[in-house]
Amino acid sequence: MEEDSTPGRSAEPGLAVTLIGDGRPLLALLAVGLFVSGVFALFLAATVTFLPQDVAFLGMDPRALCAMHECRIVHFIFHDRVSFGGTLMAIGTLYLWLIAVPLKRGERWAWWTLVLSGAVGFLSFLTWLIYHYLDTWHLTASAALLPLWVLGMWRTRSLLRGPDSWCEVVRPIAPLEWKTRAGVGRACLLFAGAGMIAAGLTIMMLGSTVVFVPQDIVYFGFTPAQLQAINPHLVPLIAHDRAGFGGGLASCGLCVFAIVWKAPMTRALWQALVAAGLIGFGCAIGIHYPMGYMSVSHLAPAWVGAIIYLMGMAMYRPVKGAVDILEIHGRRGS
């Protein structure tokens, strides 16, 4: 029998390589996984359901905790989880745009944004070493998503074009302009992104140390010592949720800042930023009202951030000619 001498037959990639492609399918799966994880967190909160390891760790179910102080302990736990879920959905939305547009064109800043944002998100899981509560479901999800991120970032390096220089990576797409409506809108979005990074890191550090702010104690009606007396595992559980939300918020803020700093505004980008903002801020702020956590000083920073973000989106809308600018920028990076 004669051998098949068809040219290039031996060089055909296998199934795994075909599915992985240039790495973007893996990163897209990561983004979808983050979004679905966020939806799952919202579902658990809506149904007032603890995860099995939560019940095992506390030795209590939500109904037992709800019997204390108008169910506020349970409401507080779920308010962090809803905020975290909204953050995951926002990150997933922004990741999908980064993967589909600038990373596809080989823009280094997009690759580095995914690297740094992912590193912040995944490393924030390690704060469990401080409060000693290992969330096995969170661990499982992270273990499933981490290989997608690592392998996806490794494979997509081949897409990168242009000079491998930090100056190129951090240089803005355009100088800050304060004399135009779009320029002020862009500045608002950059300020909101920076604020999200700062707030996220602060929440992550607070969640890993003191855990509560004074407004939390007023809402609870219990001091940390009294919570410890009710159940010695309550504070570590709440600390876990709080630190996770802080890490997610910092990761999301990094995405927002980098995108607005480096990418020209287009219709698709505007829609992605609007969706991420409505989901993220909507969950973080909206959950406080049904649970009765109405502290003005607690909600004010979130409301200020949301208003600045929405003002930025309103003023920094895509304008005619943005596609041409995008094409010019793409050619410069090639």
Helix content: over 70%
Which whole number gives the mean pLDDT? Answer: 85
How many domains in all? 1
Instruction: Give the ordered list of helices and strands.
Output: HHHHHHHHHHHHHHHH
Low-confidence stretches: 322-334
Strand content: under 5%
The biggest beta sheet, please? none
Q: Regarding quaternary structure, how should these chains be classified? A: single chain
Tally of contiguous helical segments: 16
**How many β strands by DSSP?**
0
User: Judging from the principal axes of the Cα atoms, what is the shape?
Assistant: globular
First-last Cα distance: 48 Å
Gist?
Helix content is 72%, strand content 0%. It is mostly helical and 334 residues long.
What this model shows, in words?
By secondary structure, the protein is mainly alpha-helical. The protein has one domain. Helices cover 72% and strands 0% of the residues. The chain has helices at residues 15-20, 24-46, 52-58, 62-66, 72-100, 108-123, 128-131, 136-156, 166-170, 181-208, 214-220, 224-230, 234-262, 267-286, 296-315, 322-333. It starts with 14 loop residues before the first helix and ends with a helix.
